[in-house]
Amino acid sequence: MPKDLIRIISSNELKKANVIIVGSAPRVLFVRRQLCRLGFNKARLLDERMTM
What we know:
The chain has three helices and two strands; from the N terminus they run H-H-E-H-E. The chain is an alpha+beta fold and 52 residues long.
């Protein structure tokens, strides 16, 4: 996943984009970690954790 994302995300998007992550709690946490490793600012990552 990270290798695929870094190829399609521009440096401008990396610095300025807001990202909404939706899914199960474990998946949301995984995606958040991966995006932070790529350089996304934590404050720009929004999430909705789906639970049942």
